[in-house]
Records
---
Amino acid sequence: MDAIVIGAGAGGGVVANELAQAGLRVALFRGRNFSAADCDHDELTASQAPWNRNGRRFGPDFAEIQSYRPDPGTAARVVSSRGNYFSIVGWCVGGGTVSYQGLSWRFHPQTFRLKSLYGSIPGSTVEDWPISYDDLEPYYEKAEYELGICGDSASVAPPRRKPYPMPPLPDNREAQMLFPAARRLGWKPFHPPLAITSVEYRGRPACILCPYCIGYLCEVDAKSSTAVTVIPQALRTGLCTLHAQAVVREITVDGRGRPNGVIYREGKDPWKEMRAKLIVVAASAVETPRLLLSSKSKWFPSGIGNRYDQVGRHAHHDLSLAVFGYFDKVVSDGLGPGPSCAVDFQFQDQKLEGGGVLYNGFSRTPLRVVNTLPRPKSTKSWGRQFKEFYRKYFWQHIRIYCGAHGLPREGNRVDLDPELRDALGMPIARITHRAHAWSAPQLEWIAGRAEQLLSEAGAQFTIHDQVLPEPDGPLGEHQCGSCRMGSDPRSSVTDRTGRVHDVANVFVVDGSLMTNSGGCNPCLTIQALAYWVSEQIVRGWKSGGLNA
Amino acid sequence: MSKKNWQQITSRREFLHQCGLCTGSLVLPSSWLKMLVCAEPYSPQAGGNSRTGPLLEFRFFNSAQAAIVEAVTDQIIPADQQPGAKWAGVVHYIDLALVGDLKDFRVAYSRGIHRLATLAQDFAGKAFAELDFAAQTNILERLEQDQTPIALALNGAQFFELVRKHTLDGFFGDPKYGGNRDSVGWKILGFGG
């Protein structure tokens, strides 16, 4: 093989295709495959459903374990993929992009230089990114076109050269209420960018506006996941092979200290080796550091890329909080996908570091609503009142999602549990994590804006939900930062091209690379980074440096 | 974007409306449920008691346990002008799940049911299933606060929460798992499935 890509999700799918299109022979690893049979409307097996009983269909198998502790020095407890505290979301071909909602923001230019903007932030290890928004802008554009993003080209920021390839989805009833309300407040509402086809796009049909969207495999391939876009393209070159059921244990190193392949196993077969000239790790902000740290040799006694003990440090995620408004009339037309009106306050108020973004969502399905729509304290969790409450408000509420920046907190880390191993004998990931205190006041502020918006739209009352993921809990969705890019090897894992410091031929392409969270859904940024890194790899390959 | 595409989207939306995917704005005619549940019409007067025997054989519960669990589910989602958990067959959902995906919860159910029976005897002097609705509510309010350990890492309150969660799953989840009979949980919400 020329290249091995470990992780077939948002980033790995993009890189596999870019390398295959450039003529490299690529082996794409990991992630259970799924079939058309996985496309149904079963809420009890949907992904991302904390109430689901059969495991996250597009997430990890039930047998997986990790350990978690809030701070270094405290005892870690085992967390199972059966529970809600397992720090991985996507675990299939396409990764999280199969079951996500597809929100596809660009990060703001300021997000790439938080330290310059705010100086050192107590308790945080934040650094500026080694690349700027301007560096990444062409790759955002490429990701929007290659994958297929719909959105409001007229929305104010961040600056863009080309319009979105598709117009926004048609307004649903919530949008018809929220847009005028936001304008009355003097704000600038826009349609949130979504990785969903609003019109037929490159052979895929337009979204049929069904409510089974977030948590589900799209039944018409309107969701622009890597599983229906770049991965099939990569496979069609004939140069990319998919090892969907494979598990990669470690990266191997040759006698001169150059990584030269992986040890893996497929299903229940014995462990095997595969050789390649370059290796791309794109397995998520938890699994990527786990693999690098598991790859120990006399050349890399504490793991590949870990010379300065940086692999797995700085792991964090962004936080969110939902605010619900309750109305005296039906406010939904029952159509999916749901998000239809956004307001972005990021960096508009310099006193509020980072600001925040809000948007409405998601489409309503019965179990999602009865498990997530909060009740006033006076309404019991069972009985006649309970039934009456959901019968009344199923169609009479609007959920506003509020997002805020997370920050890398000192002490946070993904490393290997010193004792525990999984069923295959591999060391498990140990998550040491708490949210940085910076996020809470941001969330409170943005939640206040959400309440204002809902009241202006006519809500009779609003309820603030809890912060998610739990601030004193493991890494959740939007995890990032654990193998961050930087110019100084003593405070980062890769250089600005995504190449691991001191190693010529190992690259990282997933949320791990992100130096800090963007305060909003990170997928498009991961994919823009994937195009950016791919270009560097192909350039290095063609010039002969990587093709040794 | 061509105009044609927008027309297609609009017609798709209308199509979904016609399929009942967006029934939120409809008011359910009172005869609607009866029409759909013609085999055994739901009668508000009879509440959840219009049925004489279980819909299916029980696979895990014995008949006394099934009677208790059925009564608990019907407290969690009671019948009113529309059916409750008893009519929806939620006890069958739980029973089937306990010999399938939820088999890890068997001990919790066996011990939890026993705990509930004890509370009913201690505070009302009767078997739980024989108490009237209001008396059952009282006992469940005690269980909801009950810190007595009943199994490893499970107290009475946690058992109640477990049954509450499984009742929601059985009432609002896919009918193929044995509950949500005739999609009644969805119809109550005006959800077209």
---
Amino acid sequence: MSSDAPIVFIVDDDSRVREALSGLLASLGMRAAAFGSASEFLAFEKPDAPACLVLDLQLPDLSGLELQEELASVPAPPIVFITAHGDIRSSVRAMKAGAVEFLSKPFGEEELLRAIEAAIALDRETRAKRSELAELQKNYGRLTPRERQVLPFVVGGFLNKQTADDLGISEVTIGVHRSQIMRKMVARSLAELVRMADKMGIRPHGSTTK
Amino acid sequence: MSSDEQSFRLILEMIPGLVYTMAPSGELEFCSQQILDFHGKTLEELRDWAPLVHPDDLDQIAEFRRCVATEELVDLVLRGRRHDGVYRWLHSRALPLKRDGQIVRWYGLMTDITELKQAEERLRRSEAFLLEAQRLSQCGSWGFDAATGKVMGSPEMLRIAGVQPYEDPSSVEFWFARVHPEERERVRAVFGKAARELTEYRAEYRLVLPDGTVRHLLSSGHPLVNARGELVEFVGTSIDATEQWQRRQDLQRAFEALRTTEARLSQAMQVATVGELAASIAHEVNQPLAAVVANAHACLRWLSAQPPHLTNAREAAERIVRDGKDAGDVVRRVRSLFQRVEPERVSLDLSEVIGEVLRLIERELERRQVTVETHLDDTLPRVMADRVELQQLALNLFRNALDAMDAVSGRPRMLFIRARRQDDEFALVEVRDTGSGMKVPERAFEAFFTTKEGGMGMGLAICRSIVEAHDGKIWVAPGDESGTSICFTIPLVVAT
């Protein structure tokens, strides 16, 4: 099993449910890790892999909804809620807070699998975006202060001459900065550089609103 | 000095008073030793006595001069300084002795009236205090003089009774006329009895003032008798207790409101408890059930693997057995929980209990647009039942009826409730709705049997257990093509 294989985290205070779900996922050939409380889950060092959290609503320490709230501010796997109470108010809250699915116990295998697969797909997407952004930011970090100053002009479609006039440096120097930016950001075209800047939240020079 | 004068002075010295004589001009001629001792001065020093007068009484010096000049009787009340520096109230009187129209000498007598003054002041103050106290406590005092038959009321008493300047409040009749007509004769009788039998008088009544204001009074009094045991005066007080009465009324109203709320709350709590209990039972059962389902899926997976993974399949199957038993245990625990509760049977008015429950679902009836029609036999004897359980029973049946009518359209939603005597032992209650009717009436009272989406199948099962615990019967009455009619019997109070 490669380290990139998805993993399913199970947080439920009922050992019977933990055992059963771990066993079911194992029979499906999926990686799973089960925890009896929110704090055990938080303390666990998670592998760098697409993941999904199957979370019981009623937990001894933090409730499922509280854990969801806590996880909202950090990179965390999407949540599939499970509950034996199935009250509507909690499910509405959970879904509003971004839960992928809300399952009432007992639930069938297909329901669970569908929810887990959707959650993992979502996590893959999020992780890809996150790593792309990390790469961009690493590249951006290699730019000199002057190059960072020039970047918004480039993505704003300004000619070298205009940029040179605005910044009070020679047109030739701007040209040099421009090619350095393209090289360091690993951008093959101006269009690609514009997209990169947009992902990092860098606004083109001269744009008033965003 | 003539011997006349000598003997005169001797007499003066012997009088235990402050005696003095003055020349026609008002100049001090002679002072008794007591005066000298009083002031601690010599006669010479006393000639100028003005500095000994209290600064606030300097007007008395002017008065003195005026009297001397006009030869009138000197009559002064002033504070004079004693030898120890203490000012004492002095009353000084001096008469002019005239001969042939000419003043020969003034004869004066000075009296220390400090004690008198203080007593006067005390009296004045205590009277003021009394008035103030009466005003503050809204308590008036009164007296009935047996000899004259007149009544005397304190200013506060007159104020409380709203006595107008043109009215004469000295007759007994005046006061009885002020009493509220509904209570006049009673108060008259109570007062008359106390005056006749010379006992304590106590009465609570209302006064009606000329402007229509009603005041609540609390009166008490006692007789004063002479040595022969005859009534001299009947004295007493009357407190204006209107405010207290008002507050007591408010308090009582608040208390009643509180009691109603409390009763409703406790009913609501009992209802909530049934709901909560159901939810917690659901949770307890669903946990092992979720495990059973997941294990069963896993078991199937292991079995259908190529080749089948029998060890894992067996483990999963063992977990199914274990968790399935758990679920069964939960159900057993729930059942024993219900069985343990012994109903507390008391004599109850069936109509009253039904009324209470209907009030509880008032809003629900309104929201679901259901009209209630009750036929409760007035002559129905009381029944013997546990109040809470009877309420639960009624509530469950009413709610069921409402649920059954949710889908109804095109005909009125009616809830009929009939209560009558079945025989000597039982009352019969019928709850009928105009809903869609029961599909499987023979299974209606089975636990966990339900045709409702999201229903627990507990409602009618609980109803049956309640009715049977009371030795009654519950059944679905055969009848209309539309609607359901459920009947139950509940024992009547056995006549002794």
